């Protein structure tokens, strides 16, 4: 079945959706169905679900060490990247590397770090 080339909608690798792409028509149908259900933005059932994300502002002390101050708490990662106007991939990769990022949103001027767990605010 992995080597079968068919005109039908069969996945290239049996049992795996890897590499599968929806057509523009299928995407439009899904979007229309979600719209009729009222599942857009804040009305989507999973809008505020997920792990909380703690956003810390970063300042550098005189001795060169980082000082983290809790800035905001978001209900999930998607709310963070929507508010900060940064791609999900950039925030996620910076979280994994424990590195800071700068938001292009003027309301969030400065360097930030995001964590899934609250850290000590000493």
Structure summary:
The chain is α+β, with helices and mostly antiparallel strands and 122 residues long. The chain has helices at residues 24-37, 77-84, 88-97; strands at 53-60, 66-74, 101-102, 111-115. The protein folds into two domains: 1-41, no CATH class; 53-115, no CATH class.
Fold topology:
Elements: H1 24-37, E1 53-60, E2 66-74, H2 77-84, H3 88-97, E3 101-102, E4 111-115
Antiparallel strand pairs: 1-2, 1-4, 3-4
Low-confidence segments, given as residue ranges, are none
The percent of residues in helical segments reads 25-40%
Strand content: 15-25%
Q: What's the number of domains?
A: 2
CA(first)-CA(last) distance: 59 Å
The gross shape turns out to be: elongated
How much is the radius of gyration in Å? 20 Å
Count of helix runs: 3
pLDDT averaged over residues: 80
Describe the strand arrangement of the main beta sheet, using strand numbers: 2-1-4-3
Structural class call reads alpha+beta
Biggest sheet, in brief?
4 strands, antiparallel
Secondary-structure element string: HEEHHEE
């Amino acid at each position: 079945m992995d080597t079968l080339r068919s005109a039908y909608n069969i996945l290239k690798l049996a049992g795996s959706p890897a590499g599968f792409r929806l057509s523009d028509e299928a995407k439009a149908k899904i979007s229309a169905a979600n719209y009729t259900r009222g599942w857009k933005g804040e009305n989507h059932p999973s809008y505020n679900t997920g792990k909380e994300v703690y956003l810390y502002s970063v300042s550098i002390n005189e001795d060169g060490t980082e000082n983290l101050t809790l800035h905001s708490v978001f209900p999930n990662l998607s709310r963070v990247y929507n508010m900060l106007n940064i791609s999900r991939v950039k925030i996620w990769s910076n979280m994994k590397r424990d590195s800071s990022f700068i938001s292009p949103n003027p309301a969030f001027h400065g360097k930030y770090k995001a964590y899934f767990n609250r850290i000590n605010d000493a």
